[in-house]
Design brief:
- The protein is an alpha+beta fold.
- Helices cover 40% and strands 21% of the residues.
- Strand 4 and strand 5 form a beta hairpin.
- Helix 3 crosses helix 4 and helix 4 packs antiparallel against helix 5.
- The termini are far apart.
Length: 220
């Protein structure tokens, strides 16, 4: 918020001497930071107002590949390479807005803590929708894995002000997964070697054949 206010004050200063290019760049940065703050506020409100079983859902059958594509277009990759691994015919029943929230939180975490490579993987596993976000970063230390799903918990980065974060993103992911009758989990990535955050939503899939994707990823 301090950065947003500072940039707006600079743009509003008639004596700033900003060029049109600099002015445009500041607008883009301000918009990005304001969007990030809006998402954090929405996450905090969700956590403080609702238990997982009280989160309202509007469920419908949705193309998972379309959802992932739409969501990634709203995220600044900050130079990261993001690969999508999902079958075009994978469809599942879930709340579009809530799953977008999950993806945004997980992908932004991978951008923030990874090392430039990200894989978003979705598949039908015996009728369950399994959505994973992998990165090639250092992963989560074992000592922090049991607490990282708690609200306002940033694990090893709790005192690192150089890396922005509110500590509510993973708590929101877990709450939304639970609201769909599913769960969130973590393991070391077998694709990129860093972190792998997964949500599993039971009995959500239809007409999908994606098991070959994981095999292709692992042998690539």
């Amino acid at each position: 918020m301090t950065a947003v206010v500072g940039f707006l004050e600079l743009m509003n200063d008639p004596e700033s001497g900003l060029t049109l290019k600099e002015h445009t760049e500041l607008i883009a940065i301000t918009h990005r930071e304001a969007t990030r703050m809006s998402r954090i506020v929405a996450d905090v409100i969700l956590l403080t107002r609702f238990a997982p079983d009280k989160i309202s859902l509007v469920e419908e059958s949705i193309s998972v590949s379309s959802l992932i594509g739409e969501t990634l277009r709203t995220i600044d990759p900050d130079g990261a390479e993001i690969e999508i691994m999902v079958s075009d015919d994978l469809a599942a029943n879930f709340d579009r807005g809530r799953l977008q929230q999950v993806l945004i939180n997980l992908v932004e975490n991978a951008i923030r803590y990874g090392d430039g490579r990200i894989a978003v993987v979705a598949q039908n596993r015996n009728g369950d929708l399994v959505l994973e976000v992998h990165d090639n970063g250092p992963g989560v230390p074992k000592r922090d894995r049991h607490i990282m799903w708690q609200r306002f918990e940033r694990g090893a980065n709790r005192f690192n002000t150089a890396i922005p974060g509110s500590g509510v993103g993973l708590a929101v992911v877990a709450a939304i997964a639970a609201s769909h009758g599913g769960q969130a989990s973590y393991e070391e990535s077998d694709i990129l070697g860093g972190a792998c955050f997964r949500i599993t939503l039971p009995d959500r899939c239809r007409d999908a054949k994606t098991s070959a994707l994981r095999a292709a990823l692992q042998t690539a």
